[in-house]
Amino acid sequence: MLKITANTSKVYDILIGSNLIKDCGKYISEVVNPCKAMIVTDSNVGPLYADAVKEALCSAGFDVYIHTFEAGEKNKNIETVYNITLSLAENGFNRKDIVVALGGGVCGDMAGFASSIYMRGIRFIQVSTSILSDIDSSVGGKTGCDLPVGKNLIGAFHQPELVVIDTNVLTTLPKHFYNDGMGEAIKYGVIAPSDLMDKICDDIDIEQLIFECVDIKRKVVENDEKEQGERKLLNFGHTLGHAIEKYYNFDKYTHGEAVAIGMCMISDAAFANGYCDKTVGDKIRIACKRFSLPTECDAPIEELSKIALSDKKSTSSGIDFVLPRTVGKCEIVNIKKEDILPFLKKGIK
Ligand SMILES: NC(=O)c1ccc[n+]([C@@H]2O[C@H](COP(=O)([O-])OP(=O)(O)OC[C@H]3O[C@@H](n4cnc5c(N)ncnc54)[C@H](O)[C@@H]3O)[C@@H](O)[C@H]2O)c1
Ligand SMILES: [Zn+2]
């Protein structure tokens, strides 16, 4: 088992290894005294793993309940969050009790958010089951849900007590979502100095890959928990990625796919505007293709730039874009509103 300790406003461990679910009750009881535990899971993951988590928690002395919601981003809304809090209240949960998020990023974001608002905050544990949540969403404390007008518009920073990443459960993760998560792994390969990008393009030891990605995220989050500066690096490929998701009404491309296209587009623009050489975009494309991720789309750049400007991260002074200098080093550059379209257009052949 590999272990990383995150030193944020709360100090917590991230455990990575195979078959960890079987003993997760023991790991959880090392950070939380036995109490009531609400397993929050979705309709795909619950039937596969909720019983095993329940058994592990029961044998460690926890009084276990299960709340299951319908899987999918379309259910990442306030109604689902409300139902989680209602379930906690109806089962007599108080501030001493815990929530155990069992699932991917959708589950972790909502179970974490529900925990942050129920009784003004109760503790929660992440038992992560998708690549995306293993390497990204389960660590760092961003929780929330979508509004009909946009993604992740409500939420809170709420750090977990522990993150358990069981690599065995990835065997049941649909291939499509596996590849999707690898889009975020490629992002880490571009923003931080390491040989991650070569590893991604080579034979992957998944446990090691998750470890390296989480460790990059840990460092970034420790330096900038509330995203005032450095944490913005994690948005590489995301400004355009989010615009692409929105342009297609969240129907055509999943998050990782849209981010893959966004990373290629912004790297081409960075090259065309003299920030990096062409090999950066080339390398990203090779890595994306390895995981069947798209590298371009037919959305007009004028529309994408308009959507990006209406995003919650755009300010009156423009947008902070994450631009690659080389593979392994990026820079946050504020581009003024009026300069954004010409900047992006230059990257389009
Ligand atoms: N909080 C953050 O910092 C952060 C960072 C990145 C992304 N996110 C959020 O994460 C979400 C995407 O996460 P995701 O891709 O994990 O989505 P997800 O939770 O919807 O999981 C993807 C699909 O795989 C299924 N699944 C998950 N694990 C499985 C397993 N082991 N076996 C079988 N099926 C499994 C789920 O039921 C779902 O159908 C988005 O909502 C995004 O906004 C949050
Ligand atoms: Zn992302």
Give a structural overview:
The model has no long low-confidence stretch (mean pLDDT 95). The longest helix has 18 residues, at 206-223. The protein starts with a strand and ends with a helix. α6 (175-191) runs parallel beside α10, α6 runs antiparallel to α11 (279-290) and α9 (238-247) crosses α10 (255-272). A seven-stranded mixed sheet has the order 1-2-9-6-5-3-4, with helices on both faces. It has a two-stranded antiparallel sheet with strand order 7-8. It has two domains: 2-171, Rossmann fold (3-Layer(aba) Sandwich); 175-345, Dehydroquinate synthase-like, alpha domain. With 349 residues, it is of the alpha/beta class. It has 13 helices and eleven strands. Bound molecules: nicotinamide-adenine-dinucleotide and zinc ion (ZN). The site of nicotinamide-adenine-dinucleotide has 30 residues, from α2, α4, α5, β8 and α6.
SSE layout:
Layout: E1 2-7, E2 11-17, H1 24-29, E3 36-42, H2 45-59, E4 63-69, H3 78-90, E5 98-103, H4 105-117, E6 123-128, H5 131-137, E7 142-147, E8 150-157, E9 162-166, H6 175-191, H7 196-201, H8 206-223, H9 238-247, H10 255-272, H11 279-290, H12 301-309, E10 319-326, E11 329-335, H13 337-345
Parallel strand pairs: 2-9, 3-4, 3-5, 5-6, 6-9
Antiparallel strand pairs: 1-2, 7-8, 10-11
Helix pairs in contact: 3-4, 5-6, 5-8, 6-10, 6-11, 9-10, 9-12, 10-11, 12-13
The chain binds nicotinamide-adenine-dinucleotide and zinc ion (ZN).
Nicotinamide-adenine-dinucleotide binds next to α2, α4, α5, β8 and α6.
